[in-house]
């Protein structure tokens, strides 16, 4: 035996001894735990090591009770998981079963657990509402995280960058997990102005003869789509590899592209080798947050990495992920439940302690998870932690507590390395190679060339006018977010015939000086009117002459006559009262009359330099003045 293999052989012997030293002990002091995992997957390998460490820790600290672990490989096959559960209960006498990374596996094993009345702890995220699950599977306890929070996080990321359309990719199973995640994502996008343009659904690749060619062919369907925002909800390791290989080959991972992956896909990708991770350069991942700087985690990590390297020497990543931590906590849930002599299921559901993933408590047979998610960025062979998201505080960067807000674009400024574009936000859309141009009909025979005019230039039409300029300005605003190719096509004929060509889909739209009529509005949609239409009348206009004498127009003959009579009457009264006592009114008759007339006329425009001698005359003047004002 090689000297290098001796330490590994000794450590493996110790592990085997620790699991078998109590196999012959009294069964009343042994709790047999059945474990169903996919031993060939990266997550399954981490779960196996974590469960062994948890059992070792309990067995070393307990003198009177021991845990005995029975592992079964499901090979990611739900039927194989069900057969493994039957064998664990009937042959190995398992008293509790843990594992099952897929909801389909969990439900099949839960049915068997119901019949045997033993608890089943599932690692899978539930695709069924908690209150319905506990009615259908009363012995099922869900340790997996609820992906509703993840979908909300993805929805907030899309909302922050104002991407309007996205393509959803997922691998469906008979349990309907992919459809459930899609529904939760649709709910998260409500009110954001974003929509799912296309769904790319993959079946399990186990039965596909040429999975690489199959995935490439399916991805080719997206060439005609405008959106370049891809959200991967669920995928096996095999699909992840073929998916990113095809995406790189077809140019879907470029400067205008965005890739966001859920927690399960992110965990699968991180646990794979670096050659696969390199394919996902620039991808954004969402993961469940767990405290990786606590003393219990550091202690677990120090035990995990040596054993993982020993059992899987060819694996590159030996850092325990969320799947390993969840498996470790599941064993501790069972271990703590054994401390009292009541029913095991009741003790499990009443758990209340701090595990590696956080506080362990259950509600409706479902683990209560803190809604905090970690946002990571795949940058080649490694990943960067960008920040966190929670519905309580929104986005928060890793630099400081105060750096938080509801918009990821504002909080995580210039820290995301996007695909093919280290800095700058990608548009999230691209011009499809086979996109059809919109056919815009333009009336060729118009009466008002200021609105629309078609000019022939060297076998080419040039379109001008207010309507054309307005349309092109609107297109420029739209193309800030999306490409909208179009072409103008002249139409020779009546306006009604032009409308008919829009109704029968010859044209996609019409631009021109088209009158909005009731019968036309029944079949086509008009924009807001920019010019009023209706009947008008043209009449000759007579000149007004000198506008300086316009003030005399209201005075007719009767008014002039009355004014003259009142003035004469006032003149006589003033003359009669002033002629004997006022020397200004003395002299010849002609002088007296002219003085009285001049005095009366002047009271209309200016005050007198000389006043009247008697109040009676002043009263006469005051009575007269309002008549002229």
In whole angstroms, how far apart are the ends? 132 Å
The strand count comes to 23
Helix content estimate: 25-40%
In DSSP terms (H or I, runs of 4 or more residues), the helix count works out at: 21
CATH topology-level fold name of the largest domain: Rossmann fold
Give me the CATH architecture of the largest domain, please: 3-Layer(aba) Sandwich
- The CATH class of the largest domain is identified as Alpha Beta
Backbone shape: elongated
CATH homologous superfamily classification of the largest domain: Response regulator
- Structural class comes to alpha/beta
Strand arrangement in the largest pleated sheet: 7-6-8-9-10-15-16-17-18
**Largest sheet geometry:** 9 strands, mixed
Count of the domains: 4
Beta-strand fraction estimate: 15-25%
Average of pLDDT: 83
How is the topology of this model organized?
Elements: H1 6-20, E1 30-37, H2 42-61, E2 66-73, H3 78-90, E3 96-99, H4 103-116, E4 120-122, H5 130-136, E5 140-142, H6 147-161, E6 165-171, H7 177-188, E7 195-202, H8 211-220, E8 229-234, H9 237-250, E9 258-261, H10 263-270, H11 274-277, E10 284-288, H12 295-311, H13 322-337, H14 344-349, E11 353-355, E12 358-360, E13 362-363, E14 366-367, E15 373-378, E16 383-390, E17 394-397, E18 404-405, H15 408-411, E19 438-443, E20 453-456, E21 461-464, H16 466-478, E22 486-491, H17 495-503, E23 509-510, H18 518-521, H19 557-578, H20 589-602, H21 615-628
Parallel strand pairs: 1-2, 1-3, 3-4, 4-5, 6-7, 6-8, 8-9, 9-10, 19-22, 19-23
Antiparallel strand pairs: 10-15, 11-12, 13-14, 15-16, 16-17, 17-18, 20-21
């Amino acid at each position: 035996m090689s000297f290098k293999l001796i330490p590994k052989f000794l450590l493996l012997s110790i592990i085997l001894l620790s699991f078998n030293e109590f196999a012959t002990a009294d069964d009343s002091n042994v709790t047999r735990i059945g474990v169903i995992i996919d031993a060939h997957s990266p997550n399954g390998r981490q779960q196996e090591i974590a469960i062994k460490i948890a059992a070792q820790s309990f067995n070393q600290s307990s003198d009177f009770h021991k845990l005995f672990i029975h592992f079964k490989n499901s090979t990611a096959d739900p039927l194989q998981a069900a057969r493994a559960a039957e064998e664990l209960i009937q042959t190995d006498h398992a008293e509790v079963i843990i594992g099952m990374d897929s909801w389909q596996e969990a439900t099949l094993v839960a049915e068997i657990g119901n019949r045997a009345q033993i608890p089943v702890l599932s690692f899978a995220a539930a695709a069924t509402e908690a209150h319905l699950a506990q009615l259908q599977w009363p012995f099922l306890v869900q340790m997996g995280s609820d992906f509703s929070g993840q979908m909300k996080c993805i929805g907030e990321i899309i909302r922050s960058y104002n991407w309007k359309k996205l393509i959803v990719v997922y691998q469906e199973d008979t349990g309907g997990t992919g459809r459930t995640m899609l529904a939760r994502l649709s709910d998260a996008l409500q009110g954001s102005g974003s929509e799912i343009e296309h769904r790319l659904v993959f079946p399990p690749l186990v039965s596909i003869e040429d999975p690489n060619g199959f995935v490439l062919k399916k991805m080719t369907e997206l060439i005609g789509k405008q959106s370049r925002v891809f959200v991967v909800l669920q995928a096996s390791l095999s699909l992840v590899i073929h998916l990113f290989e095809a995406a790189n080959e077809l140019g879907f991972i470029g400067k205008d592209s965005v890739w966001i992956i859920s927690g399960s896909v992110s965990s699968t990708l991180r646990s794979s080798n670096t050659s696969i991770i390199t394919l996902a350069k620039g991808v954004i991942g969402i993961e469940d947050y767990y405290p990786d700087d606590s003393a219990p985690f550091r202690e677990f990590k120090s035990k995990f990495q040596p054993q993982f390297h020993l059992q899987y020497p060819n694996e590159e990543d030996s850092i325990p992920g969320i799947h390993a931590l969840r498996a470790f906590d599941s064993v501790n849930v069972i271990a703590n439940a054994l401390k009292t002599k009541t029913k095991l299921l009741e003790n499990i559901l009443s758990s209340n302690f701090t595990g590696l993933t956080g506080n362990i408590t259950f509600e409706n047979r479902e683990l209560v998870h803190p809604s905090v998610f970690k946002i990571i960025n795949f940058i080649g062979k490694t990943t960067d932690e960008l920040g966190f998201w929670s519905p309580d505080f929104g986005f928060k960067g890793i630099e400081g507590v105060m750096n938080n807000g509801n918009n990821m674009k504002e909080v995580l400024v210039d820290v995301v390395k996007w695909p093919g574009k280290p800095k700058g936000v990608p548009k999230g859309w691209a011009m499809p190679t086979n996109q059809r141009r919109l056919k815009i009909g333009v009336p060729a025979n118009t009466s008002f060339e200021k609105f629309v005019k078609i000019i022939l230039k060297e076998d080419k039409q040039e379109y001008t006018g207010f309507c054309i300029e307005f349309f092109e300005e609107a297109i420029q605003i739209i193309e800030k977010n999306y490409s909208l190719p179009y072409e103008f096509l002249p139409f020779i004929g009546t306006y009604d015939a032009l409308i008919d060509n829009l109704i029968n889909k010859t044209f996609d739209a019409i631009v021109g000086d088209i009158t909005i009529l009731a019968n036309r509005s029944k079949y086509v949609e008009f924009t807001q009117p920019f010019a009023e239409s209706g009947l008008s009348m043209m009449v000759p206009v007579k000149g007004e002459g000198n506008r300086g004498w316009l003030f005399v127009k209201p005075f007719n003959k009767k008014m002039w006559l009355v004014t003259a009579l009142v003035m004469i009457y006032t003149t006589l009264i003033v003359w009669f009262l002033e002629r004997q006592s006022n020397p200004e009114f003395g002299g010849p008759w002609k002088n007296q009359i002219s003085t009285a007339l001049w005095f009366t006329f002047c009271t209309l425009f200016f005050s007198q330099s000389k006043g009247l001698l008697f109040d009676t005359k002043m009263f006469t003047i005051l009575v007269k003045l309002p008549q002229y004002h």
